[in-house]
Structure formats: C-alpha cells, structure tokens
Amino acid sequence: MNWISLTKQEKAAQVAHYVPLGLTASQIAGKFENCSRSAIIGCAHRNGLQVNGGSNQATRKVSPKKPVNPPRPNKKHKPLQTVTKPYRPLNGKGIPFMDRARKQCAWILNDPADGAMCCGNIVDKDFWQPYCEHHAEESRGKPGSGGMGRGGWVK
Fold this sequence. Notes:
single chain, mainly alpha
C-alpha cells in the first residue's frame, strides 16, 4: 500500500490499527511504500497515539553520571611572585596624574572625579610598563581573584 495515496483519515486508521500490536514506528513504516518513520510518528502524534520505541523518559535507562575529577594544578607556569618590599605611594598620598613623569607609576589611588592621584613611584623595569613593581603585581592578580591573571605584564 502506498502511503502517499492514502487520505489523512486512512493514514490515521492504519496507524491506529498497528499501534496496539506493539510495532515500532519503523516497523509500521515498513508496511507501506513511500513512508518514513517520521511520517508515522507525526501521524501518531497528531492523532494522540503513542508509538512504541519512542524516547520515553520512564522506560529509558539513564546511566549514572561519572564523578568529576578535581582540576589538576597547571605545572607549566611558575606561581606568581609576591612583592616583599613594603608599599608606600610617593609623598604618602601620591601625586596628581597630570604631573606624573613618564617613568612614574600611573596606578590611580582614588576616585578620578576627586582629582586623580596616582602612585608616582619609579618604574624601573621596562619602559613600556606603566606601573611600579607593586602595582604591576596587583594588576596581574592572584589566581581566582578576577585580576588580569597570567596575561598581564611580564615581570
């Protein structure tokens, strides 16, 4: 029997005839020419029938989840170095940002709306680095602190 030549009512009747027999959608589709499993599932769904072999949550066996292994420490990178020198901004309170020289730390210490005061300590490492050793370390952040992490300036 050709599935395409049947009317909607005839298709529904044929599917309703085979569903109680316990056939799967693929087996029912095999009874017809030019018929797919999806066509049988769609017809059954539109007519409120449950075809065997579907992905029913109640009958499907779910394998237990495997335990998640804790992350291993990354041994490629050496741990961040901590600065041991005590930190103090220049003049105790910093210097105005606009008065800062090229080799002075640009780390802003207060709210810029109140007149940006920066650290002002001497940057003695790299010409392109805008921060002193203390603030360069702080800008990199510690692992898990939300700082720039390993992608920060090279020490």
